[in-house]
Amino acid sequence: MQFKLPELGEGVHEGEMVKWRVKPGDAVKYDQPLCEIMTDKATVEIPSAFQGKVAELHAKEGELVHVGQLLLSFEGTAAAAASVASSANHAAPATAHAAPALASAPAAAPLAAKTSVEVLSPESRVLSAPSTRRLAREMGVDLKQVSGSGPHGRVMKEDVQAWTGTAAPAVVRGVPSGATFRGSEERVAFRGLRKKISEKMRQSKDHAAHFTYVEEADATELVRLRGQAKEIAAKQGVKLTYLPFVMKAMVAALRQYPILNSSLDEQKNELVYKHYYNIALSVQTEDGLTAPVVKDVGNKSVIEIAKDIQAVVERARAKRLTMDDLQGSTITLTNAGSIGGLFATPVINYPEVAILGFNKIFRKPVVKSVNGKEEIVIRDWTYFSISLDHRVVDGAIGAEFMKLLIQYIENPSLLLLESF
């Protein structure tokens, strides 16, 4: 039998073979992860739709593979394997885990008579990623006994670990797995998410004419308002950060300066104005930086946005982003405030024309006019930096946008007019 690369998503025809999860001779069970494919949109973990024995791998790690390309051969029965594929397609949730493609091998390939195929009914499935299922099998855990903390009751790896009382393995930051050492040097294959980030950054720098504008803001009222709203959000099970407020302020300012919510179609020589607000959020994961999208920000309240942010960040860090999570952004927000630093010069998420950097909030003495007199007072302070494509956005427009954005940050009660 042959296993071919299935459809990975609309408009996605190829990807990089980042990692094989199996090797020749391995006995494979239904829903077991076979490999990881990195596309321009997401890392797709391909689960097995058969139970049998891996005969041969036909693609190498780091190789570019195309939809329909032969990935591996396995020993099994075509009819039984097909029934599993049908069951999987019927039962599997809509995530980035694509349903595998199966095809008959040439007649010369012998079939193993003892190979059996396990067919699971939709009712027996627990909502979880294949990697979580594998962890549960390794730890001897029945997933039906575990309460899921993810969206729609999805069982996460952390749920399995909590159920067994074990902690997640420690991660050594900055040292990728698979590293080989030669004397005082270290060589690591440059592929996967790191390579995709490199390609996107190079594309952005090659096409967009970057310039960055920086402005400071008095965030005292924002800190106060967030402190009050935080308790309300917590009662709804939502962690409220400053990001939803910043996103609402972005939308309010973008409505006045729509050029920043556009993209340049260089092939058609057209400027495309977006009359909707989908804000990509830079999220740091163990594998690198990714930018999932918070959709329809303009029509949501701060708490609704906070729910969306919380869910998408959890999916990003658990490597469960869907294709939809990574498509359709109109502008990007990057936040390095938890790490530190005054400000940065972020790289535009091409083909967008703007990316806003939100930095740390800190206490500092400033001169303020109080009752007509200048006094030194302690305020919560922050800096915003915005990188713009100078081909599309003039410096004056960028500065005016930032001035309006800061007005909303310093007077967040004005966001009440923005369906707060």
Walk me through what this model shows.
By secondary structure, the chain is α+β, with helices and mostly antiparallel strands. The strands form six sheets. Strands 12, 15, 18, 19, 20, 21 and 22 form a seven-stranded mixed sheet that branches. The protein contains eight helices and 22 strands.
Summarize the structure.
The chain contains eight helices and 22 strands. By secondary structure, it is of the alpha+beta class. Helix 6 (243-256) crosses helix 7 (302-317).
In terms of DSSP E residues, the strand content is 25-35%
In N-to-C order, the SSE pattern is EEEEEEEEHEHHEEHEHHEEEEEEHEEEEH
Distance between the termini: 56 Å
Q: Looking at the structure, what is the overall shape?
A: globular
| Rg | 25 Å
Query: What's the assembly state of these chains?
Result: single chain
**Biggest sheet statistics:** 7 strands, mixed
If helices are DSSP runs of H or I spanning 4 or more residues, what is the number of helices? 8
Uncertain segments are 78-100, 103-124, 167-172
Number of strands: 22
Estimate percent helicity: 25-40%
**What would you call the structural class?**
alpha+beta
pLDDT averaged over residues: 81
Task: Compile the SSE list and pairings.
Layout: E1 2-4, E2 14-20, E3 27-28, E4 33-38, E5 43-47, E6 52-57, E7 64-66, E8 70-75, H1 78-91, E9 101-103, H2 130-139, H3 157-164, E10 180-182, E11 185-187, H4 193-207, E12 210-218, H5 220-235, H6 243-256, E13 262-265, E14 270-273, E15 279-281, E16 283-285, E17 288-290, E18 293-294, H7 302-317, E19 331-335, E20 354-358, E21 362-370, E22 373-389, H8 395-410
Helix pairs in contact: 6-7, 6-8
